[in-house]
């Protein structure tokens, strides 16, 4: 089970982290996540992914200011870089990450 401390530790210790907020009742969440993971895997070798089920881990979402699902938070070098909620495309997320990620890893 995830905790705020575990997620913060992952963010601090890794160059690139995606925190994915979803719930079992969210169909969009289930459709989006595998596509997003596949593209991260293909394009960015350094990414760590933390998944948060807001129906179980209720204190985590408000701590990160997340009030809608799905929400994707991307952290680069310990700082929040991208925040997308509800309506997003996989390409949109990947495009926003690509350039800064390449700069950081080159």
Gist of the model:
It is built from four helices and four strands; from the N terminus they run αβαβαββα. By secondary structure, the chain is of the alpha+beta class. The chain has a single domain, classed as Glutaredoxin, CATH 3.40.30.10.
Low-pLDDT residue intervals, each spanning 5 or more residues:
none
CATH-defined fold name? Glutaredoxin
Indicate the CATH class. Alpha Beta
Largest sheet: 4 strands, mixed
Subunit arrangement of the protein: single chain
Instruction: Give Rg in angstroms.
Output: 13 Å
CATH A-level architecture:
3-Layer(aba) Sandwich
* DSSP summary, beta strand count: 4
Order of strands across the main sheet: 2-1-3-4
Report the principal-axis shape. globular
Helix content: 40-55%
Task: Tell me the domain tally.
Answer: 1
Distance between the termini: 34 Å
Tally of DSSP helical segments: 4
Q: What is the averaged pLDDT score?
A: 94
CATH superfamily: Glutaredoxin
Series of H and E elements: HEHEHEEH
> Strand fraction band?
25-35%
Query: From the helix content, strand content and strand pairing, which structural class follows?
Result: alpha+beta
InterPro entries: Thioredoxin-like_sf (IPR036249), Thioredoxin_domain (IPR013766)
GO molecular function: protein-disulfide reductase activity
Pfam family, one: Thioredoxin
Domain Thioredoxin: 1-102
